[in-house]
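Weekly modeling sync, notes
Attendees: S.R. (lead), two postdocs, one rotation student

Agenda item 3: backlog of single-chain predictions. S.R. asked that every request posted to the team notebook include the full sequence so nobody has to chase files. The rotation student volunteered to paste the first one in as an example of the format we agreed on. Action items at the bottom.

Example entry:
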Amino acid sequence: YMLAQKCVEKFGLKKGDRALVWGLLSQETRGLRSKGCVDALKDAGLVVDYMEISPAVNADPPLGTPVITGYISSHPDVKLIITDHGGLTSTVETYLKAAGKKPGEIKAAGFDLTPATVEAIRKGYCNLVLDQQPWLQGYLPILQICLTKKYGFSGLHIDTGAGFVDASNVELVAKLSEKGIR
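Predicted structure, as returned to the notebook:
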């Protein structure tokens, strides 16, 4: 919800503008991010199209190139595309270039910071990322297991982050992304 809400604010989107959420609603828990994006965009009055990420594209994001180029050609008024998948977000530059779009012509947002996403932000193809800090998502459960074993601590619920990365702050985390830490 926060990502889509930030997109509306940051990109000056208004009632009636078209947006696409390409996500995983079919996965009950995993699909909550997609649902939040759709809900926030609809709450802002945007026309929202939703496409389910196919299993093939989920496994190999470049296979989504004809899906997005086809969507863009049939919806030339789309102003925003949100990809609810780190792999798709890191492929957004490929998608938009294949559709003949220039940087920023269609705003793109998504999840998770990767080196490819950093480059897409630098070039203007990706305009906003919700950084959930996946490295922490792997590290903190191991720490929790150790704390439980050694000290009997009960389970922790930790939100690993909901910070935004865009052109204004990407350089602060770019090198960490290259090392797999951010």
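Discussion: group reviewed the output briefly. The first strand starts at residue 18 and ends at 23.
Action items: rotation student to repeat for the remaining queue; S.R. to check formatting next week.
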